[in-house]
């Protein structure tokens, strides 16, 4: 299986749209991404590997506003399937560590499990949904995390997961394409646009999202537009927040402020000030 290095486009998108205070990437920790092989492509997007090596007395707290995807993350003593997170993901990094993750397509985990994705929202479950039930998780963690070459680790995970692949579900591709359209197109700000993309009425769309994604259509659109806001604030310190709010489809700046705070825990102005302090440090 081929294993290509991550692209600069991915690095830019990831750091400016999901990682809060993205200047920490490359300084406090490293992120690499690798494509999945053909066997996993109908359900998963890519492998991601996060590594850090800090001084013993150094503690770094990193916050991430995740995409609406489920992940299988291999980490020493903490391997789990992470359902879609509707809040912030906060992680403290200390010493030396590594996490190897597989990000599923939106809806891509549903064929692997025996329950609705809504039951996995904001929670973690056993990795054995995706692994052979006879697998020794501790041994699997050691085998993956002790491989120095990322390509070897990716190949190992691919072989492991390929033994458990479910039947193809064509709805996964439709849903994932619709979610990507929402993430790419900042003009999509209302649920009827999603209904049109998927050719579903409102009730069917809600049921489909609950079963396959574990989030609501309204939440998905708001999260995508807040991701757009994080990216804009990271690269543009001059645009008035009222103008940014209108460009992203919010009723006014007050509405933008409420949604931004709901997703990030702070106001757009507070986040812009934190970015400014980082640039000046």
Automatic annotation (TrEMBL):
It comes from the Bacteria. Coiled coil: none annotated. Keywords: DNA-binding, Transcription, Transcription regulation. One of its GO terms (molecular function) is sequence-specific DNA binding. SUPFAM superfamilies: Homeodomain-like. Gene3D superfamilies: Homeodomain-like. Pfam families: DUF6597, HTH_18. Residues 173-274 form the HTH araC/xylS-type domain. InterPro entries: AraC_XylS_family_regulators, DUF6597, Homeodomain-like_sf, HTH_AraC, Tscrpt_reg_AraC-type_HTH. PANTHER family: HTH-TYPE TRANSCRIPTIONAL ACTIVATOR RHAS, HTH-TYPE TRANSCRIPTIONAL ACTIVATOR RHAS-RELATED. This is Helix-turn-helix domain-containing protein. It comes from Paraburkholderia phenazinium.
């Amino acid at each position: 299986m081929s294993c290509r290095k991550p692209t600069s486009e991915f690095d830019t998108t990831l750091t400016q749209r999901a990682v809060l205070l993205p200047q920490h990437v490359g300084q406090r920790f490293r992120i690499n991404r690798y494509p999945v092989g053909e066997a996993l492509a109908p359900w998963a997007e890519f492998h991601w590997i996060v590594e850090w090596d800090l001084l013993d007395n150094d503690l770094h707290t990193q916050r991430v506003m995740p995409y609406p995807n489920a992940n299988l993350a291999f980490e020493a003593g903490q391997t789990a399937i992470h359902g879609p997170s509707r809040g912030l993901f906060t992680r403290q990094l200390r010493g030396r560590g590594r996490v190897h993750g597989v990000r599923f397509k939106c809806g891509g985990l549903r064929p692997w499990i025996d329950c609705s994705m809504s039951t996995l929202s904001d929670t973690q479950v056993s990795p054995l949904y995706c692994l052979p039930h006879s697998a020794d998780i501790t041994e699997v963690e050691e085998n993956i995390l002790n491989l120095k070459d990322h390509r070897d680790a990716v190949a190992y995970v691919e072989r492991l997961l390929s033994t458990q692949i479910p039947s193809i579900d064509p709805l996964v591709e439709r849903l994932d394409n619709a979610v990507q359209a929402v993430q790419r197109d900042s003009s999509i700000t209302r649920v009827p646009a999603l209904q049109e993309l998927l050719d579903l009425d409102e009730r069917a769309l809600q049921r489909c999202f609950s079963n396959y994604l574990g989030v609501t259509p309204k939440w998905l659109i708001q999260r995508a537009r807040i991701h757009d806001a994080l990216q804009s604030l990271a690269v543009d310190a001059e645009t008035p927040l009222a103008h940014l709010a209108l460009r992203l489809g919010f009723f006014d700046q007050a509405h933008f402020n409420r949604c931004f705070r709901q997703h990030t825990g702070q106001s757009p102005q507070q986040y812009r000030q934190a970015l400014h302090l980082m640039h000046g440090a």
